[in-house]
Structures
1.
Amino acid sequence: SWSVFEDKILYQLLVFLQPPPRHSFRLELYSAMHLAERCSNIRVVQECTCSRMMMGDMPCFPHRPDNNQMVQSSPLLCTLCTGSYLDVEEIACWVQNLVQSAWEHLPQWHDWQLTVLPSARSCRVLLTGPSEVQLCAVLVFAVQQGSP
């Protein structure tokens, strides 16, 4: 959606996160004992593909060759998760850094100034262009329930 707010054009974008290959997202609802401000957790699960293998007894990505135990060390888990759960603050920080580093590779970077605004749970950027036109974009992260 978009709107005008304090002489700025505000864009709000819903960004659906998709798990990488061999991973899935699992929604786990909190019980009444947990914090009220968070109603769910998204657990990242590394999927076993051993049963789909055609040749030999080579284990799949999440299994150790020595004892066939599940491993929790994929790059996704190390970068965007706390434990086995997606961490929206880590995701926001990662996307903010990605946007900032990619900005100089776009042809518009000479004419527009990018400012990453502080935000712990979304990615907020302010673009200031010619004639002091300002655009604010807010990327809000979501996981679609029932997606693979």
2.
Amino acid sequence: PRKSRRRKSVAIAYEAGQGDGAGARWEPPRWREQLQRIRQMRSGRDAPVDEMGVHRCYDTSAPPEVMRYQVLLALMLSSQTKDQVTSAAMLRLRRRGLTVDSVLQMDEESLGQIIYPVGFWRNKVKYIKQTTAILKQKYGGDIPSTVEELVQLPGVGPKMAHLAMHIAWDSVAGIAVDTHVHRISNRLQWVKKETKSPEQTRVALEEWLPRDLWKEINWLLVGFGQQTCLPVNPRCSQCLNQDICPAAKRL
């Protein structure tokens, strides 16, 4: 049969488990030890992501389709935005009754006033309105249940799609890689060679990281990146991995 060019591009972007083939599988030295130490540092569960992350932003008593919609909206708001700001915006939206229909009935100016000051809020107003209309027309008010369909929605990228699968559908389709996961994976050299984008990091991690860790790794590394492995001036002296991290600033 003829090979489909489109199918090939989809496999590169979205399909997981590409590193499951035969042959010796590369993995970083001492990664299990590094991971266990990060778990120890994250045992307090007191980072912003723990208290105000997307998994805390939706109404758990809402009907399942409303809950899933709220998860997706929280993810859309969270891009380039601190968890505290996303959480506050979601609370304001929920006070207005956050459903597909309520957002469709809301004019763009009102929606903008509610979600401000999330990052790029003007663009997000447009994306939210467009995506919500698609969900109403194509999915009966629910959200898609595949990564491939989710990333077709305006304003939804791969990280959001994988987190939506994790949180809304309790399904692990891949690793959700944001700037924290991307940065820390490169610092720990959990990628075979340096990656330039979160999506490149996702593909690199999925080639070797055991699948049963895929859901946990985002939560672990995001909180670790918020508290210890900061983008600028990382707190290496407070990190349990200081002696086995390739990027550590040692005293």
3.
Amino acid sequence: VISDVQAACQDATVTQELLKEGFHRDLLVKVELGVVGEDAGGCAVAARTRLPPGIYVDPYELASLQRHNLTKVVLIPDVVDVEAPEYLATDHLVLLYMEPDPQCSRCFRAALPVHGRYHRPAEESEEALVVLKSPEVLVCCCDNRLSTECWKPAEVEAPCSGKTGGACQWYSVTHKPVYEELILQVPVGLRQHSLLVCVVTLLATVLCSSLILAAVCKYGHFS
């Protein structure tokens, strides 16, 4: 019996890619479970990933998306400083609930909007590299009799549906990432441009302040 179970256990396949360009991207995650001969249609699948300090998820944006049922995400911690630069930020965990792929009974996918943080100016390169590791695959089959011999219990305090409710038993799935890590290239400034940036910023500030002051003096009503 053990040999039959081991033969039926195959690693899940995980693919993740970054869509769009620049600071504001979409992280697309795809998972194909590796249990042979069984239908995972009644299971919930989630990807748990740790975002490094150079990248973050906007909780206010997520709240808007979740109100429209466009995504289901749990942030740990749930408070994220969206204004902090990379060198003052900390990493955080994301539990991304995935939707079934109608074309494959064992396939799931989900997209998550992520944003790059500002980095310190560099000496030579105009890009900073942010490394995103492959996520951990979690499965919860609360309403399904899918065999769980291939998986290990995971300590996750979250409901299967991604909505409010009691927590259920999640399992960690052995997976085979298509790529071990994903690299986000974030544009950064060059140190030798610091003086030029300061001068241009100062001139723009003085010019705009002068225009505002002139408009107030010309059109303002003073008692």
4.
Amino acid sequence: QCAERIPEAEAVLDMLEKCPEHQKKGGFPVIVFEGLDATGKTTVTQAVKDTLNGVLLRSPPPCISQWRTVFDDEPTSIKRAFYAAGNYILASEIAKASTQAPVIIDRYWHSTAAYTIATETSGKVQDLPPAQDEVYQWPEDLLKPDLVLLLTVDPEERVRRLQHRGLEKTKEEAELEANSLFRQRVEESYRRMVNPACQEVDASPSKEEVLKTVLQLIKKHCGF
């Protein structure tokens, strides 16, 4: 229905329809990095890609990320549908890339789910759906990664990094900064994800130390 009002929605749906169902992963590991803005995802994903001679992918993928600003201004349900569709379009890129090299991903399903759950819930962390709720489950029809690493830094350090970067804030980033309860709900939602769960990594130390920790976890969980 929204395709009549938003021309870009039709293009997204066309791409989604072209994606084969039940994507199969190749022989190389697929590693996802999650976390709030300014937790070091860009730096770490690039470093891991270079170290492992891998392929770096992002969600939403470039073929639709040009329309993010369009969908970010839409009602929550349409915006979330855009990001969810982006994950399935990305899955076809992951399937192809993982036959040739390790795949490093900057955000995937857990981001979409965590922000959706945190937005749909008001109040404190205690008001989130209970830990065993199905909202924290990975979708059965979406290609699953081998490892999900959640980068975290303490709130003050994260805000300091954001200010240092001096970038224009997204709506969600402004909300995270203004509303500590929202931030806590997002972070707790990440922690409750299962199948696969997030492995938490303290991203406060130096880039070299964080990279070392991350590579050890990849070796342990992916045997790579």
